[in-house]
């Protein structure tokens, strides 16, 4: 979403007249549900928001601000707010185990954060260069070398254009820059681009990348597999990176500070432990049923659940088959991150860069510096099939496995690390993955049906926005849901006035 479009939506949200509190379900005059969902007495609200990630919380905040008298209730299956924005403390450090980056073009995020008292830190040009253009090591067949030596190394099996590109940069070289036919993110679904809605592996092969190079690209790529994601989806995501300032900031107290600050502004505390199992629509209200039998009722509902958990919710009446299919086929990338504390600078023993790309096992390793540019943490990042394989172990086993694998590549690391945290997003029952992917051949239908309102039910979440990434997409979706509800209530008021 461009900044101009965001401002237009924000103006619409604040300018749209809403129904008076007494015209909604304000706690009196709410008749009993005629459905058979659950047995407990329903708790009335004016708006229900399902999911306390930043998308749902942003929608709730905007809905309260539109009409300070309305009762907005947020239901959350887990025991914390933030969803995939998750910050932890371990080993004397506070760090993110989920979303981390605040893009320079994250207009909504950068506007919301100071408003709720959250600080954003932008890196120096030197830090940016170190992060995105700094030295790296490459590990192939058990041997580790400096990436700068890759082109002339005997380990390099490639020829031609492929030989000159280090493995970590192969996929971005093949899908970014001039190789990307998506030049305008707002036109990514243009008919002329539909031919790119095929498996990314096939798309790369058609552009004369060798099978060996494609297999190399698949290692560490943030997808479940190059055969499982649409090339058009990948090109769409790459096109989003072209817009606006390219700096990447972070939140001073971790990203979870933002949803916590937004939740603290709400009039009603978030209801935790409310795992939604059923949504029943009636002529003038929606009943939401939790797995423990609790029930809530409101004229409108915002569903801000990731596709996996959403697919487990029963609806009455059922959504159109196309909409169910769009939810069911929207996989989220399995990502498992292991955070290690270095007990000594073991990487100095072999003189190779700390950051690594490896042709298997732990896949990617990044050094995370503190404010004084000293490495305080190592991030082991495993994606897709690699993550799915290690997710068969419990967290403690995964941590020990990562330490063993690291020591196998760099013997000086043996006994030189401490496990701080293990976070498996693929195994998280309330997320079921980290990044929403679009399956091959499904781009147009996914865009059409993912966020299509279903009667009195509206949808939000990072996966429902297609022109911004990450946190920005989540905020944009919450704003869109609030605008939809404002427009629906305005139409209802106009109908009542003319009756």
From TrEMBL:
Residues in coiled coil: none
Secretion signal span: none
Keyword Membrane: no
Chemical reaction(s) catalysed: L-tryptophan + O2 = indole-3-acetamide + CO2 + H2O
Domain of life: Bacteria
Keyword Cell wall biogenesis/degradation in annotation: no
Keywords associated with the record: Auxin biosynthesis, Oxidoreductase
Enzyme Commission code: 1.13.12.3
Domain Amine oxidase residue range list: 240-485
Pfam assignment, any one: NAD_binding_8
Cofactor(s) this protein cannot do without: FAD
Pathway: Plant hormone metabolism; auxin biosynthesis
Family recorded in the similarity comment: Belongs to the tryptophan 2-monooxygenase family.
Protein name per the record: Tryptophan 2-monooxygenase
Gene source species: Novilysobacter avium
């Amino acid at each position: 979403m461009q900044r101009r479009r965001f401002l237009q939506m924000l103006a619409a949200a604040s300018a749209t007249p809403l129904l008076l509190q007494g015209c909604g379900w304000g706690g009196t005059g709410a008749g009993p549900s005629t459905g058979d969902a659950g047995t407990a007495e329903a708790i009335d609200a004016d708006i229900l928001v399902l999911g306390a990630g930043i998308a749902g919380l942003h929608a709730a905040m905007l809905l309260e601000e539109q009409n300070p008298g309305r009762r907005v209730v947020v239901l959350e299956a887990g025991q914390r707010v933030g969803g995939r924005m998750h910050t932890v403390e371990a080993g004397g450090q506070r760090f993110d185990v989920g979303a981390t980056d605040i893009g320079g073009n994250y207009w909504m995020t950068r506007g919301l954060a100071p408003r709720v008292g959250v600080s954003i830190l932008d890196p120096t040009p030197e830090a940016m260069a170190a992060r995105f253009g700094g030295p790296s090591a490459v590990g192939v067949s058990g041997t580790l070398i400096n990436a700068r030596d890759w082109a002339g190394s005997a380990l390099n099996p490639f020829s031609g254009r492929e030989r000159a590109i280090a493995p970590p940069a192969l996929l971005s070289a093949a899908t970014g820059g001039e190789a990307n036919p998506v030049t305008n993110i707002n036109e990514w679904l243009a008919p002329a681009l539909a031919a790119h809605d095929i498996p990314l592996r096939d798309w790369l092969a058609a552009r004369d990348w060798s099978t060996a190079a494609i297999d190399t690209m698949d290692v560490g790529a943030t997808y479940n597999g190059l055969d499982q994601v649409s090339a058009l989806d990948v090109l769409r995501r790459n096109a989003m990176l072209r817009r606006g300032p390219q700096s990447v900031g972070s939140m001073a107290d971790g990203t979870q500070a933002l949803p916590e600050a937004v939740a603290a502004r709400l009039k009603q505390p978030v209801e935790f432990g409310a795992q939604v199992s059923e949504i029943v629509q009636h002529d003038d209200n929606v009943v939401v049923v939790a797995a423990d039998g609790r029930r809530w009722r409101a004229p409108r509902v915002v569903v801000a659940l990731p596709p996996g958990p959403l697919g487990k919710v029963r609806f009455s009446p059922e959504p159109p088959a196309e909409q169910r299919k769009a939810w069911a086929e929207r996989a989220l990338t399995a990502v498992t991150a292991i955070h290690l504390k270095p007990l000594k600078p073991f990487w100095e023993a072999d003189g190779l860069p700390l950051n690594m790309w490896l042709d298997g096992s732990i896949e990617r390793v990044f050094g995370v510096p503190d404010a004084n540019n000293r490495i305080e943490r190592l991030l082991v990042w495993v994606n897709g099939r690699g993550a799915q394989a290690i997710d068969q172990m419990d967290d403690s086993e995964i941590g020990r496995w990562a330490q063993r694998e690291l020591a196998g590549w760099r013997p000086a690391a043996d006994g030189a690390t401490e496990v701080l945290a293990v976070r498996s997003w693929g195994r998280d029952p309330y997320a079921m993955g980290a990044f929403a992917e679009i399956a091959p051949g499904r781009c147009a239908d996914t865009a059409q049906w993912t966020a299509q309102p279903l009667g009195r039910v509206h949808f939000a979440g990072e996966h429902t926005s297609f022109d911004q990434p990450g946190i920005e997409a989540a905020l944009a979706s919450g704003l869109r849901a609030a605008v939809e509800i404002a427009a629906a209530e305005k139409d209802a008021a106009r109908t009542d006035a003319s009756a």
